[in-house]
Amino acid sequence: MRTALSIAIDALAYGMVLFIISIGLSIMMGLMRVVNLAHGAFAMIGGYLASYAIRDLHVHYSVAILIAVIGTIIVSIPFELLLYRRIYRKSDPLIQVLMTIGITFFIIGVVNFTFGPSLKTIPLPALLSGPLDIGFRSLPTHRLFVIACGVVTALALWLLIEKTGFGIKLRASVDHSDMADALGIRTEIIYAATFALAIGLGAFGGVVGAEILPIEPFYALRYMVTFLVVVSVGGAGSITGALSASLLLGLADTTGKYLAPQYGEFFFYLTVIVIVFLFPHGLFGRKHA
Amino acid sequence: MTDLAIDHLPRRRSIPLVHEAISALVIIALGAAGYVLFPDDLAFLTRLIGISFLVLSLDLVTGYCGIATLGHAATFGVAAYAAGIACVRGITDPLALLGIGIVAGALMGLISGALIARFRGLPQLVLSIAVGQLVAALANKLHFLTGGSDGLASIEAGKVFGIYHFDMYSRTAYLFSLAILVVVFVALMRFVRSPFGLLCRGIKDDDLRAKMIGVMVYPRLVIMYGVSGAVAGVGGALTAMSTGVVGLDSVSFERSAEVLVMLVLGGAGHLWGALAGAVLFQIFEHIVAAANPFHWMTLVGLLLILIVVFAPKGLIEPVLNLARRLARKGKAS
């Protein structure tokens, strides 16, 4: 029972971190059809910025999150202008894969040249670091904070996409880019805004998830595959899909690591193969023309 | 894209096999130059040839069939492990080990092809990664077979044809690898121009049209994957024999990504492009990697971005264009 609860909390927290980071990637893939393998690299930049802000500038955790998100978006602007614009909606996935792998390598090299190759911690404020007593037992507060962040992100995104003018234009651009263009929606602005949103979410996830996915030099490469898998299993461009895929894969991975640690990631990837084989467009994905 | 298939047909039916003979001579000449000029670096050059087989193999599925894969190192690694395990368990004849590598690679190719070729786009990419990672996880966990993270060591192949033994300067290994490279390359030149190879090109250009004229697309892609696996298997077995160890790096995601980079650097869809990319990239890596690995990553990243922006068809394309222009000029005058 005790183990079951630990697994549940850890799996939920891990799944939420996966969700916060992957949903940005999922939106980008759904809208721009870019297989952005560099998404993890931007999450890593967020983590490094937050770590620098707290440890060297001594700002509060919440301020550090803001610095990380805004700083990463600023860093990403030249990449968007110079590189990503070329590959939006371009049909050849090979070119996209290569360019985004190139961007990943480049960012890893530069970030580690700037911040050094050691593991970077993001110190938690006192409020989040201890255990939280919920009556019959205590739970790690940080895990609960991560879960809360995930829930808030999912709700906020849902409101943004379903209820606002921006969301309507975004959905129009996803479904019929050319028609949206013809109706006077500035699709390139929508694309740029969505890119910034996606990168910001990635950076946010990188910071709050740093306890679970530690910020280290090869972060971008190590978790690249995991984020891509979440999007593929969930279906590109779907919030429900990304959420359920994150929780499912978080559960599979955490349970596997608790109960059969000697097999490592074997069951995780086996699950992925089975799911992708059965649902090639993801659990909640739509078939795009 | 439509003129590609035509370009690969010989213009006139001139002397048979002349293309193949010229290619073989070029590779032999380059190999001999390497042997004479860099006698101290033969171990590196042998490894270079080993990886070249993997890049050629990737070219068959990516360049000729249009399948984007990030898990191709699995075919190479499975063959390397198969040859290594067989060698440790007592089969030491190099040609037999090569055969084992080819069979293992072809089987792995058929299995992964059967999974991956059913889809296109993102699901295909993710399946290829998942297959590659699954093999990597297995190689890590089946400790009694593969040595796990320690790698499989003390692979000592016997003498080639019972005469030449693998010496510490890698002379035998290098010449043996070079000879096999010539044979495989010439065979592949014939293969990609065969009706089967041309059909695969057609599938890459427009798979819907291929289906409409009655081509069974899926089985052909799986067969192509099997052939590609066999080619990668040659490289895996040779690398296992020449280096004497097989490590987890031979099935890793990084290896898969790296060979894709090599292929696109040279030019996907050309055998010469694949070979040139493999050689150029590895020499570049050999020189730069001595420095800080992070500088190395920055440089490779930059190189990749530049290639995608300025020469998305690879470095071989401008060379081919120049050759074509020269040929046309020669004919006109």
UniProtKB/TrEMBL annotation, chain A:
It is a multi-pass membrane protein. It holds the Pfam family BPD_transp_2. Its main location: membrane. InterPro entries: ABC_transp_permease, BCAA_transport_permease. GO terms for molecular function: transmembrane transporter activity. One of its GO terms (biological process) is amino acid transport. GO terms for cellular component: plasma membrane. PANTHER family: ABC TRANSPORTER ATP-BINDING PROTEIN, BRANCHED-CHAIN AMINO ACID TRANSPORT SYSTEM PERMEASE PROTEIN LIVH. Belongs to the binding-protein-dependent transport system permease family. LivHM subfamily. This is ABC transporter permease. It comes from Rhodopseudomonas palustris.
Automatic annotation (TrEMBL), chain B:
GO terms for cellular component: plasma membrane. The keyword ATP-binding does not apply. This is Branched-chain amino acid ABC transporter permease. It is found in: Cell membrane. Signal peptide: none annotated. Its main location: membrane. It is a multi-pass membrane protein. It comes from Rhodopseudomonas palustris.
